[in-house]
Design a protein that fits this description.
It is found in: Cell membrane. By secondary structure, the chain is mainly alpha-helical. The chain is built from 20 helices and no strands. 81% of the residues lie in helices and 0% in strands. The longest helix is centred in the middle third of the chain and has 30 residues.
Length: 400
């Protein structure tokens, strides 16, 4: 089968049978949410100047954002199992729209931190519902569906950070966030109209009884899940840390303008638009263990070379190498989703992701402390070392 025919067949399997009307708004919503999150690193220098933040306290702001997006995933998973994906995703987009409105008008650093925490909490309501509805819709193409959705997320992260950089340079940093608010409201309406209403009065098997808690704990304590939680924590630690400071690093250590730095940051996610569908498709075809290693070797090389690279062409190449790690999400999330039974998939995913993401949220503030002491380059070399550990662990990862 030719490449064109293969792509057409894959598209038909994803969009046919009315599945496209579910995939499209879910993917667009995810693109807006993660695009909103990645505006923070671009405007971080402006926030530092306006609110008097050091690199450490700026890192703490990003940690607050990631921590908020982590802690809500367990309760959102429980609520998704009991109610509907539609309600959770609509609530998520509306909450983030309201929270970004508060960020834009925040007069003090304290209110900025509080509004940022609310942005994170709103975002935490979306991921589990996104995964469970795609698992139900695409039982045989989950990796591909998640890959497309996450690629749309990277499209949002490709477009909105450079757009925020331009708006910040021309107008003010508040416009970088403000442009997202009406789009989130429109997507909330689209999700409500397009997604099926699966609500039911039958809550058997989803109420938090003692028996159900014992069942959930026994399922979560399996070796495969414990192993995956450790791997996911290490990956999230690297991913959140790298993304939090990359534009700042390019501007302050490599001498790039903020506009060029934000464009390179957007390009990082632009490469991810291509990587994630390929990674998801690779998972569907060759499974766990082999597919993660393929996408993690490039970031190891890129992170090692980053401190020694100078000039835009070299940094574009480094950015392309590091960007392949974005494919890991489509693989790990597909694998995790298939480990859980239908009656606890949301709760299980929420527990694993909350644990891993909460621990991983410590990365930006720790990196900020290191950078404040003049060890920006050494921090990225340390991230490369952690990535090597992930590669070695994935070679021993059990198949689903």
């Amino acid at each position: 089968m030719s490449l064109v025919a293969s792509i057409r067949a894959e598209a038909a399997s994803l969009l046919g049978g009315g599945k496209g009307k579910i995939l499209a708004p879910v993917a667009v919503g995810w693109g807006l949410l993660v695009g909103s999150r990645m505006v923070y690193p671009v405007v971080l220098p402006n926030l530092r100047e306006m609110f008097g933040l050091s690199l450490s306290t700026a890192g703490l702001l990003v940690t607050v954002l990631w921590l908020g997006s982590a802690v809500g995933q367990l309760p959102s998973g429980v609520l998704t199992d009991r109610y509907t994906e539609r309600r959770m995703m609509v609530t998520s987009t509306l909450t983030v729209a309201a929270a970004l409105s508060l960020v834009v008008v925040a007069p003090t650093a304290l209110l900025l931190y509080g509004a940022t925490a609310l942005v994170g909490i709103g975002m935490s309501l979306y991921p589990i519902a996104r995964i469970t509805i795609l698992t139900e819709t695409y039982p045989d193409r989950l990796g591909s569906a998640l890959g497309v959705t996450m690629a749309t997320g990277d499209l949002g992260q490709t477009v909105f950070p450079p757009l925020a950089g331009v708006l910040t340079a021309i107008l003010a940093w508040q416009f970088g966030f403000g442009v997202l608010i009406p789009s989130l409201l429109v997507v909330a309406l689209a999700l409500w109209v397009a997604l099926p209403d699966t609500s039911t009065n039958d809550t058997d098997g989803t109420e938090l009884s003692v028996e159900r808690l014992r069942y959930i704990v026994s399922e979560l304590w399996s070796p495969a899940l414990v192993f995956m939680t450790v791997v996911l924590f290490l990956f999230i630690f690297i991913w959140q840390t790298f993304s939090a400071f990359y534009p700042t690093y390019l501007a302050e250590e490599k001498g790039l303008s903020e506009t060029v730095a934000s464009a390179l940051f957007g390009l990082f996610f632009g490469f991810g638009v291509l990587v994630k569908p390929l990674a998801g498709s690779a998972y569907d075809r060759i499974g766990m263990r082999r597919s993660p290693v393929i996408v993690l070797v490039g970031p190891v090389v890129g992170l090692v070379l980053l401190p020694f690279a100078d000039g835009v062409p070299a940094l574009v190449g480094i950015t392309a190498l590091v960007s392949t790690m974005l494919g890991t999400g489509a693989i790990t999330q597909s694998y995790l989703s298939e480990l859980f039974a239908d009656d606890m998939r949301g709760t299980g995913l929420g527990a694993v992701r909350t644990t891993a993401a909460t621990l991983g949220a410590s990365g930006p503030v720790l990196f900020g402390v290191v950078a404040d002491r003049g060890y920006f380059d050494e921090g990225y070399l340390a991230l490369a070392g952690i990535m090597v550990v992930i590669v070695l662990l994935t070679l021993r990862m059990p198949e689903s």
